[in-house]
Amino acid sequence: MKYLPALIAVAALSATLSAQAYDADWKRGRVYYRSVCTSCHAAQAGGAISPTTKTKAEWSAYLQADKHAKGKDTVKSFVSKPYRASIKATNKAAEKFADTPDAELFDDIKAFLIKGAKDGDAPASCS
Predict the structure, then answer these.
(1) Residue 2 — pLDDT band, cuts 50, 70, 90?
(2) At what angle do helices 102-116 and 56-65 cross, to 10 degrees?
(3) Please, are residues 51 and 112 in contact by the beta-carbon 8 Å criterion?
(4) Could you tell me if residue 124 is inside a domain?
(5) CA 78, CA 73: separation in Å to the nearest integer?
(6) What is the radius of gyration, based on Cα positions, of the chain?
(7) pTM confidence score
(8) How many domains does the chain have?
(9) Residue 114: CB atoms within 10 Å
């Protein structure tokens, strides 16, 4: 009985933390990746990069390192609100997600890449 208040406090804290956790939306990540990342790579970087070009571990490591273009840029810079604002006139996905928090959109893209990786639940192409 004397442990009941502590147990209730732990349960309340767990419920609060669970309510604050963001559940990434791989479908939103797919829309952004295909509309922004793929279109840019196809136009400027010599070809689109399919999620199936890497394994889940490779995508996780790449995103964790946050190095794009062989370290010249960060991945997060291409997901940022300022970047989306800079391309929204010519990119509907950037315009559509203009107000989405950077961290949420980054997590959405990660969820899509992990799901679509060559060893993911649903290997994806860039179509």
Answers:
(1) low
(2) 160
(3) yes
(4) no
(5) 9
(6) 18
(7) 0.78
(8) 1
(9) 22
